[in-house]
Structures are given as structure tokens and as C-alpha cells.
């Protein structure tokens, strides 16, 4: 039995040490449950929903119960102590109160704003996770290219030293190869640091082991934005969460202005109550009474404060209008930038792919030319550097293109898990 338990522990330990493979969609789903910032946004959304309930409550009847018991000790010598008791129920119902109606509108706008902000945070988390995911892949690709470049320089250095020893090359070739190797070694340190930073950022968002992420496929589908730029901008103005949030802030400012103006108007309230009292003395100590009435309150003079509040609320409404217009303009610019990032990004990826083919052909030709003596060692070093630089540039172009696709959907308020799944298909699936 002890042997079997030992085997079980060893198996579990081995499984724990192996990072499970996951893709971009898995990372996003993990981030929804792990990221503390998104958890806070979810709680803020839930809290914001209560604003609608609170605003509506101001228009509904208010019912209260009161009771009292008092022990009375008269100072007159011929009067005995006695106890009086009483309870009552009061009801009040606003009939006309602009301020409370404004509270209702503020509550509705606050609840809507909480929903919008939560959805906006959800979209931003998709973009943040995707960017962190692609940053890890880019750092891995950069490190791999740097190590390959370093290995090539190492081989060149060994060949240059051997050629110098037999007298078929000058010391200059050795120095050039040594300089290239040292530069690659320095770049490798930077690349390792960048990879560690990128992995930590992804782990912070998802709680997953960054070593298990799926890489990008060798060839990705380059999809351009369907439709004209103007059509995307029109969709963004209708669906953008930023525009919708500014619109709800304007609605709140309008409710504030309505409330400020309502301070000049009378309020009318329906009141009803029932009282049951026992005075504890006299021939008829118990009394019961009910009441129904209307209460009118009319402000006459407030020292100019109401007029000041109205002017302040009007200015804040104007500011909210301007913020809404600024948001619309910014959304148009964001859509234009993302649209060009997708359209031009696809073309740039194709150009980088063709450039990589050319750089590879140039490197092979330069190697052959060096063997036959028509190219120098420096020519070969430059060709190798150009090739690995192109490898890194192509990787960066592909990740930027995929990020731009997500940003275009985000700018139009249409970034969902389905849109992320489309980008996720570009990843090489395990198995």
C-alpha cells in the first residue's frame, strides 16, 4: 500500500510540473475568473444596478411604524405615577415632486452606465489578454531568432579563426565575426528579459503558466475589413461603449438640471396615518385616530442658492454635451486607425512574408558566394543579420495585424468572444 501511494504522489507531482497547453480563448476565459480588476468591475456593475432601485423607491409609498412607552412621575403629591403607551403607522406618497422624479431618472442612467462600463471593461480585458498573449509569442520568436543569429555568428567566428590560423583570412574577419557574436549575445540577454516580463504580464492576467501557450500557425488567414470606413464609423457611433457611456452621463446631467429647476416648484405629498394611544390616566385613557391629508411645500426665498444651483447644473450639462461630442470624434479616429491597421496590416504581413523569402535567398546566395570567394565574411554577416531581423519583423507584423482586428471590433463595440474565437483560429492547435 505504501508503494502504491508513493507511485501516486510521484505521478501527481509529474503532472503538476507539466504546463497544460492552452490557446487565446482559454486564456481569455481564465482571465475572466482570475483577473482582480475585472472582478472589481463585475462588483461595480452589480452595485450600479442598485441605483435604479433606489431612484424608483423615491417615487413609491413610504410606510413607517412608530411606538412609544413612557413612565410619568408627577410632582404633585396627590397624583400617582402612570405609564402612557402609543403606536402609529404613517404613509406618505409623493404626488408632485420634481426632485424625486429627477432621482428616478438619475437612477436609471446610473444603472445603464454601470452595465455599459462593465461591458467596456470586458472588451478591454479581451484586448489586454490578447496583447499579453501575443507579447509572449513575439518575445519567444525574438529570442529564437536572436539565438539562431548568435549560433550563426559563433560558427562564423570559429571559421574565421581557423582560416586566420592557416593564413587564408585576415584578422579583420575574426574581429568582425567576434563583434557580431558579442552583439548577438547582448541581444539575447535583452530578449530573455523581455520574455520574462511578457510571461509575468500574461500570468498576472490569467493565472496560467505562460509556458503552455499555443504558438501562431505558419500561415494565417489575412482578412481585411469588410465594408467602407464610413460604414464602420457609423456602426461605432451607434454601438461604441464610450459614446454610450458619455450619453448616460449627459442624461444624468440633464436629471441634475431638472432637479435644480424643480427646487423652485412646489411639492405635493399625500399623507395618511393611524394612531393608537393609551395615556394611562383619566376616565377615557385610550384614544384612536386616523388621518388623511395633502401637504404642499412652496419655496419662497433661498438667498439666491437655487438660482446658483441651476446655473451650475446648466454648465455641467453643457460640459457633458461637449464630452459626448469629443467621444464621438475620438471614436471616429479610433475606428480609422484600427481600420487602417487591419487593411494595411494585412498588406504589410504579405510584404514581410515576401521579404523573408528574398532575405533567405540572399543569405543562401551570400553563403555560396563566400565559398567561391566572390563575397566576404562581412557580406555574409550582414546577410544573416538582415535575415533574422526580417524574421522578427514578420512576427511583429503578424501579431500587430491580429491585435488590430480586435481593436477594430472594440472601437465599434462589437468585440465579443465570437470575434476572439476568429482570431484564435490563427493559433496552431495542440494534438
Briefly characterize the structure.
69% of the residues lie in helices and 12% in strands. The chain is of the alpha+beta class and 431 residues long.
Written description of the protein model:
This protein is an alpha+beta fold and 431 residues long. It has one domain: Outer membrane efflux proteins (OEP). It has helices at 2-16, 24-34, 36-57, 98-166, 171-206, 229-239, 241-262, 305-372, 377-411, 417-424, and strands spanning 62-72, 82-96, 267-278, 286-297. A four-stranded antiparallel sheet has the order 1-2-3-4, with no helix packed on it. A hairpin with a 7-residue loop joins strand 3 (267-278) and strand 4. It is elongated. The model is unreliable at 1-18 (pLDDT under 50). InterPro entries: OMP_efflux (IPR003423), T1SS_OMP_TolC (IPR010130), TolC-like (IPR051906). Residues 270-290 are annotated as: Disordered. It comes from Gulbenkiania indica.
Q: How many structural units, i.e. domains?
A: 1
Question: Helical proportion?
Answer: 55-70%
Largest sheet: 4 strands, antiparallel
Residue ranges: pLDDT <50 for 5 or more in a row? 1-18
Strand order of the largest sheet: 1-2-3-4
Q: Considering the protein shown, what is the CATH homologous superfamily?
A: Outer membrane efflux proteins (OEP)
Architecture (CATH level 2) name: Up-down Bundle
* Radius of gyration of CA atoms, rounded to a whole number: 37 Å
SS field, number of helical segments: 10
Proportion of residues in extended strands: 5-15%
CATH topology: Outer membrane efflux proteins (OEP)
Total beta-strand segments? 4
The sequence of SSEs as H and E is HHHEEHHHHEEHHH
Shape: elongated
Amino acid at each position: 500500500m505504501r508503494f502504491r501511494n508513493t507511485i501516486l504522489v510521484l505521478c501527481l507531482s509529474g503532472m503538476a510540473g507539466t504546463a497544460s497547453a492552452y490557446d487565446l480563448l482559454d486564456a481569455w476565459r481564465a482571465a475572466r475568473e482570475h483577473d482582480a480588476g475585472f472582478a472589481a468591475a463585475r462588483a461595480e456593475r452589480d452595485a450600479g444596478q442598485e441605483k435604479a432601485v433606489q431612484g424608483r423607491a423615491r417615487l413609491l409609498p413610504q410606510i413607517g411604524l412608530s411606538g412609544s412607552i413612557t413612565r410619568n412621575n408627577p410632582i404633585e403629591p396627590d397624583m400617582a405615577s402612570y405609564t402612557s403607551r402609543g403606536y402609529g403607522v404613517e404613509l406618505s406618497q409623493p404626488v408632485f415632486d420634481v426632485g424625486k422624479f429627477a432621482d428616478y431618472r438619475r437612477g436609471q442612467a446610473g444603472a445603464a452606465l454601470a452595465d455599459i462600463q462593465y461591458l467596456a471593461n470586458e472588451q478591454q480585458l479581451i484586448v489586454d489578454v490578447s496583447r499579453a498573449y501575443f507579447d509572449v509569442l513575439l518575445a519567444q520568436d525574438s529570442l529564437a531568432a536572436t539565438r539562431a543569429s548568435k549560433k550563426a555568428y559563433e560558427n562564423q567566428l570559429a571559421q574565421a579563426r581557423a582560416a586566420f590560423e592557416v593564413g587564408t583570412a585576415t584578422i579583420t574577419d575574426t574581429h568582425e565575426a567576434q563583434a557580431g557574436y558579442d552583439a548577438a549575445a547582448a541581444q539575447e540577454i535583452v530578449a530573455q528579459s523581455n520574455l520574462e516580463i511578457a510571461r509575468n504580464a500574461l500570468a498576472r492576467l490569467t493565472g496560467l503558466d505562460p509556458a503552455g501557450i499555443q504558438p501562431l500557425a505558419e500561415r494565417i488567414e489575412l482578412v481585411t475589413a469588410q465594408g467602407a470606413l464610413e460604414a464602420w464609423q457609423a456602426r461605432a457611433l451607434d454601438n461604441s461603449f464610450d459614446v454610450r457611456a458619455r450619453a448616460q452621463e449627459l442624461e444624468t446631467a440633464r436629471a441634475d438640471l431638472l432637479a435644480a429647476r424643480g427646487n423652485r416648484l412646489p411639492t405635493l405629498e399625500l399623507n395618511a396615518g393611524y394612531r393608537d394611544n393609551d395615556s394611562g390616566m383619566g376616565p377615557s385613557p385610550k384614544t384612536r385616530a386616523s388621518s388623511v391629508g395633502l401637504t404642499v411645500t412652496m419655496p419662497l426665498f433661498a438667498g439666491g442658492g437655487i438660482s446658483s444651483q441651476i446655473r451650475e447644473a446648466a454648465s455641467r450639462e453643457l460640459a457633458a454635451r461637449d464630452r459626448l461630442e469629443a467621444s464621438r470624434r475620438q471614436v471616429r479616429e479610433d475606428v480609422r486607425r484600427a481600420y487602417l491597421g487591419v487593411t494595411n496590416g494585412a498588406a504589410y504581413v504579405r510584404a514581410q512574408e515576401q521579404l523573408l523569402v528574398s532575405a533567405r535567398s540572399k543569405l543562401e546566395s551570400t553563403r555560396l558566394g563566400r565559398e567561391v570567394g566572390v563575397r566576404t565574411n562581412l557580406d555574409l554577416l550582414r546577410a544573416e543579420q538582415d535575415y533574422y531581423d526580417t524574421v522578427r519583423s514578420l512576427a511583429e507584423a503578424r501579431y500587430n495585424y491580429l491585435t488590430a482586428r480586435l481593436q477594430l471590433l472594440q472601437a465599434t463595440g462589437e468585440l465579443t468572444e465570437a470575434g476572439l474565437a476568429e482570431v484564435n483560429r490563427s493559433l496552431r492547435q495542440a494534438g
